[in-house]
Amino acid sequence: MAITPPSITLRWQSGTNGHLTLLDQTRLPGEFLEIDCHTVEDVWQAIQRLAVRGAPAIGCAAGYGVCLAEPNLEATLNACDYLATSRPTAVNLFWALERMRQVANDAANSAPDELAQRLLAEALAIHEEDRQMCSDIGRHGADLLAALPEGAGILTHCNAGALATGGEGTALSVLFELARRGRKPHVWVDETRPLLQGARLTAWELQQRGIDCTLICDSMAAQVMREGRVQAVVTGADRIAANGDAANKIGTYSVATLARAHDIPFYIAAPTSTFDLSLSSGDEIPIEERAAEEITQGFGTATAPAGIATYNPAFDVTPAGLIAGIVTERGVIQPVSRDTIAQLTEDSSDERCDPQRR
Ligand code: MRU
């Protein structure tokens, strides 16, 4: 089945009495199964169990999730609070919910129909803006990597593609844009233990789009770099602090460290909705811990002895000093520092970088 961005990941069906349809990403690549969410609880579950995942996509899903509450102020605000408990790390979730909260508060005295219409308009706007941000990130990132030699190796970790966003992706949008420009990057895909977002999702997306790629286990990245096969690394991010420290899928910090050891530039591609300027550094980013079973019996097969102690942080923080540049929809932040981040994100008409949330 060919990807027709941006609709495969999530879409709202019909008007204010409609529902959210999601591609269940836990079933990929074996099965292309869409699920319908008719309640706020359905959306909470879908986010929590990673049926929909990736920072921008979680934000879009949460926006639509709020539209499934009863159209009154109390139920809407309760839905926002509830959805905020689904996952802790990706700030796009809280950013989107804050936008929904503001719309609800502004429409506090409106009739239910009017409130429902305004909430749905906001959720659709969040999705549409994300689609546009992805496309702009693709352009800026492709400009940045334009000087790479033909057939250059680009390594990515986890999935930051169409499946992770409301559009074409962040890191993968850069690769798709390079391909549209007639370039032929070779993508090295980290499988991304324990939930294999690289193997199951990124490899699938790249294959669908006809992009030349090779899947490796996470532990192989050092050797592949040492062999001179990687000329740049590009990943997404879940939350970027004011100093540029960036949380992304567990293993990203290792990749960034390896890239530095091999003198390979490590880039992050993320929309400004992923910045959390209320946090001074990455030390303050909440890191989600997930169930032990993801390590001990991922996908149903026991791979560790019963009762073994585990630790399963789902994200890690890459220090700003390891990041050569951050590709945003507004341009590339390079070098990455508190000042350059403030310069690019400062725009008083735009509160997306400093959401009041949590
Ligand atoms: O646990 P996941 O699959 O939601 O983690 C996703 C990532 O870490 C992505 O790299 C990140 O959200 C950026 S997606 C554009």
Notes on the protein architecture:
It contains eleven helices and 14 strands. α3 runs antiparallel to α4. The strands form three sheets. Strands 6-5-4-7-10-13-14 form a seven-stranded mixed sheet, sandwiched between helices. It folds into two domains: 128 residues, translation initiation factor eif-2b, domain 1 (Four Helix Bundle (Hemerythrin (Met), subunit A), Up-down Bundle), CATH 1.20.120; 225 residues, Translation initiation factor eif-2b, domain 2 (Rossmann fold, 3-Layer(aba) Sandwich), CATH 3.40.50. With 358 residues, the protein is of the alpha/beta class. α6 links the parallel β4 and β5. It binds 5-S-methyl-1-O-phosphono-5-thio-D-ribulose.
Any key phrases for this structure?
binds 5-S-methyl-1-O-phosphono-5-thio-D-ribulose; disordered C terminus; alpha/beta; 358 residues; 11 helices
Q: Spell the H/E element sequence.
A: EEEHHHHHEHEHEHEEEHEEHEEEH
CATH homolog superfamily of the largest domain: Translation initiation factor eif-2b, domain 2
CATH class of the largest domain: Alpha Beta
The CATH topology of the largest domain comes to Rossmann fold
Judging from the principal axes of the Cα atoms, what is the shape?
Answer: globular
Task: Give me the secondary-structure category.
Answer: alpha/beta
- Radius of gyration equals 20 Å
Helix content: 25-40%
Total of helices: 11
Oligomer: single chain
Total number of strands: 14
Bound molecules: 5-S-methyl-1-O-phosphono-5-thio-D-ribulose
Strand arrangement across the biggest beta sheet: 6-5-4-7-10-13-14
Average pLDDT works out at 95
Terminal residue distance: 39 Å
CATH architecture level-2 label of the largest domain: 3-Layer(aba) Sandwich
Poorly predicted spans:
1-6, 348-358
Could you say how many structural domains there are in total? 2
Kindly estimate the percentage of residues that lie in beta strands according to DSSP. 15-25%
